[in-house]
Each structure stands twice: as C-alpha cells, then as structure tokens.
Amino acid sequence: MSTEQDKLVQIGELAKSLAITTRTIRYYEEIGLMGKTERIGGRARSYHKDDILRLKFILKLKNLGISLKEIEKLSDIFDINKKNFDVITPKLIEILDSHITRVDEKMADFSSLRKDIVEYRVRITNYLANNSDNRNPEY
Amino acid sequence: MSTEQDKLVQIGELAKSLAITTRTIRYYEEIGLMGKTERIGGRARSYHKDDILRLKFILKLKNLGISLKEIEKLSDIFDINKKNFDVITPKLIEILDSHITRVDEKMADFSSLRKDIVEYRVRITNYLANNSDNRNPEY
DNA sequence: AATCTTCTTGACCTTTACGTAAGCATAATT
DNA sequence: AATTATGCTTACGTAAAGGTCAAGAAGATT
Q1: B30 partner at 20 to 30 Å CA-CA among A1, A15, A138, B131?
Q2: CA–CA dist A79, A68 (Å, integer)
Q3: Are A57 and A4 members of one domain?
Q4: CA-CA distances (angstroms) from residue B61 to A7, A36, A112?
Q5: Same-domain pairing of B58 and B96
Q6: Has residue B51 been placed in a domain?
Q7: Counting one residue from A and one from B, how many pairs have CB atoms under 8 Å apart?
C-alpha cells in the first residue's frame, strides 16, 4: 500500500542514480526479480520507494557474489505481504538463517584472505627494509 | 626449486582432493592461470606442492567472487621469483594494498547485509511471539 | 591378450548477465 | 512542425567459466 504520494521515478533516472543501466533493470523484471512494474499511461515504467528499496537490496546481494537465481529465492522476502503469513514465515526464517550462516562463512574467508595478503606484504616490506642486495630472494 | 622429493600428484587425484573437476584445472592452465604444468614422461600432468598451493590460492580468491582475469594479475605473486625482484616489488605492494582495501570494502558490505538480515529476522520472530492473530501483518 | 582406468587434446555446447541494435511511440523543446 | 530525448519491445550478440563428448594413448590388472 503506497498511501503517501510517492515520487514517480522513471527508469532512466533510477538507473543513473544507482549507476546501472536501464537494460539491467528491465532484465531483472524480465526474469521475475522485480515483479511487474507499474506503468505511466500504460507505457513508461515508474518506480516507487518500495521498488527502489527492493532493487537496492538485489544489487547489494549481487555485489556479494550471489547469483540472480539465488537472489530470486531470497526476494520472497519482498513478496511476503502478498502471501499467507504463517505459511511463509517459518520458511523465511530458515532462508534468513541459512543466509546469515553463509554470510558469516564468506566473512571468515575474507578475513583469512586478508591475513594472507597482509602477511605477505609484511614479508616483502621487511625484506626491502633489511636487505638491499637482492639477488635470489627467499620469502 | 623443488629440492625435496615432492609427492607427484596427478590431475585426477588433485581435482578430487579439491572438490573440483579436471576440466577446471586444465582450463586454468589453458588461460595461463596455472603456468605450464610438468608432465610425467611428456604426457600426464603432475603437480608439486607449489602448484597445489597456487591452485588453492586461486580457488580461495575465486570463492570470494574475484574473476579469473583479476586473479591472473594477483597471481603474479607466484611468478615473482622468476622475475627481477626490485622491479616487480613496488608494483606488487601496490596490488596487495589495493586488494586489502577491496577485501575491507567487501567485508563491510557483508557486515551491512548481515545486519539487514538479522534485523529482519528479529522483526519477524518478534511479530510471531507477540501476535497470534496474523491477518494483514505489518513489518 | 584383453579389459580397466586414467590420462591426453580438440571441439563444440551451455548458462549467466547483461550489451547492443532495430524500429517504433510519446513527450518535451526549439 | 521538426528535432531531440526518453521510452518501448524484440531479438541477436557476447564474455566468462567451465561441461561434455569424441577418439585415442599409456599403465595397471585380470
């Protein structure tokens, strides 16, 4: 329900504001990620606050390397109001929990990679500081 | 220089141990990510400790959503011994620093996403706990 | 000697996530 | 009225990252 008068945003402006292309937005609609978009006079797509939030959420997930197919599942979150609440909720919590776990795992991976890189950097800079004679380096 | 007698690992075993396919390993060689692999009797590929470490590193990066093309640049790290040390090092440090930054950014993104998901989960479970009459939910 | 098993190199196939171009409609501007 | 900007759909194109199939070689096993 969009009671307050939403600002109508058209596809071009929206794309520009999110630094993506219009094609991307239409594509997300095409594959069902964004739902049918409201049209102005039956033609030009117009986006509301809710739509924009949803798109931002999608981009956030995508940026984290989650495929559009997987995002589609998670996107049920946004369709929940249209479905039966107590049927969907346990499943939703399950999805959320599993994604929290996945996010934690990814973060651990990143943390480990960061450690690797930093350690490597330290080894190199130490070498540079202590040793000017750089034939056959061992690090 | 592989002085100690390395265990020779063949492609099938290596693939199985890393839970990938032989095609993937050959593909990485094909696009230059793994360098020419040593052969047994000029035919079957054999892998040393170093090669395996390199492959593991690649998989680690890939798992974090870094493209093979980008990994290729970072992979210079492993070729460094074959090149001139002081020519390559400043560039390498630059690469490492930029990747540390990128990793930090990604981790921040994940952290933010995790917060979103957890908050959402809390809203739902609270709703479930406080409200059994679930028509037209607002969350 | 025959059969497995694992390896080899091509070569083409597939999916994902869009890019890009064609041809047309509408709205705003000159 | 003509141009420009933005929008629309349809449809073919593309890069990345492998999958899959073919046809054959080499080593191990029965």
Answers
A1: A138
A2: 16
A3: yes
A4: 42, 37, 11
A5: no
A6: yes
A7: 89
Same domain, B97 and B128: yes
| A121 contacts B93? CB cut-off 8 A | yes
User: Is the same domain home to A14 and A41?
Assistant: yes
Nucleotide nearest to A25 (CA to C1'): C18
User: What pLDDT is attached to residue A139?
Assistant: 42
Q: pTM of the predicted model, to two decimals?
A: 0.76
3-class SS of residue A28: helix
Q: Are residues A2 and A43 in the same domain?
A: yes
Q: Quick check: A64 and B82 in contact, CB under 8 A?
A: no
How many independent structural domains does chain B possess? 2
Q: Which of B82, B124, B125 to mutate to test the interface with A (most CBs of A within 10 A)?
A: B124
B24 assigned to some structural domain:
yes
- Residue A60 scores a pLDDT above 90: no
Q: Please report where in the chains the tokens 């929290």 appear, as a residue.
A: A100
Q: Which structural domain range is residue A37 located in?
A: 1-64
When comparing pLDDT for A6 and B54, which is higher?
B54
Under a CB-based contact definition with an 8 Å cutoff, are residues A123 and B80 in contact? no
Q: Write b or e for each residue in B87-109: b if 16 or more Cβ atoms lie within 10 A of its Cβ, otherwise e.
A: ebbeebeebbeebeebbeebbeb
Out of A96, A106, A107, closest to residue B121 by CB: A96
Most confident residue range from A23-37, A51-65, B2-16, B84-98: A23-37
D17 C1' – B24 CA distance, angstroms? 9
- Asked whether residue A87 falls in the same domain as residue A138, the answer is yes
Could A109 and B64 be called an inter-chain contact, meaning their C-beta atoms sit closer than 8 Å? yes
CA B27 / C1′ C11 distance in Å: 14
| Residue B55: count of CB within 10 angstroms of its CB | 21
